[in-house]
Amino acid sequence: QVQLVESGGDSVQAGGSLRLSCAASGFTSRKYCMAWFRQAPGKEREGVAAADARGRTSYVDSVKGRFTISQDNAKTTLYLQMNSLQPEDTATYYCAVVVDDYCYAFPSRVDMFYWGKGTLVTISS
User: Fold this and answer.
1) Among candidates 14, 21, 112, 7, which has minimal Cα distance to 71?
2) φ, ψ for residue 12, nearest 5 deg
3) Would you say 85 and 17 are in contact if contact means Cβ atoms under 8 Å apart?
4) Which positions ≥6 away from 28 have C-beta within 8 Å?
5) What is the Cα–Cα distance from 9 to 4, expressed in whole angstroms?
6) C-beta pairs of 67-76 under 8 Å, 24+ apart in sequence
7) Average pLDDT value for residue range 1-29
8) Neighbour-count burial of 15, counting CB atoms closer than 10 A to its CB (0-12 exposed, 13-18 middle, 19+ buried)
């Protein structure tokens, strides 16, 4: 069974940096899409960044140049390096994965993803 466990959420000041981690298990698909979504209170869930098994990445415009999605060499851990953080980045961040496909489902087909429980990121001004 697919299991995703996020960590690294914290409270930091605007302009700071943070790295989120997602430990993934329960699948060995050669095709996959791993992604980060976020949701702020009272707002809709938003796709932040995605990476597929071929190393292709995509980002929402608001984080381009500030966030970087990556995987470890074993491809069992997903990271989100977040720099130049702003209060607008405050949200619960969720790790998500689509198995047996690439990232065509990102960000709109949320029904195709397995989900972690999330980790809270709070940015103060």
Assistant:
1) 21
2) -135, 165
3) yes
4) none
5) 15
6) 69/34, 69/35, 69/36, 71/34, 76/23, 76/24, 76/25
7) 96
8) exposed
- Which tokens sit at 124? 């103060």
Question: Is 121 within 8 Å of 93 (Cβ atoms)?
Answer: yes
Q: 75 pLDDT exceeds 90?
A: no
Closest C-alpha to 6, from 95, 80, 122, 68 = 95
Q: pLDDT digits over 37-59, tens only?
A: 999 999 999 999 999 999 999 99
Distance CA 8, CA 6 (A): 7
- Bridge partners of 69, per DSSP, are 80
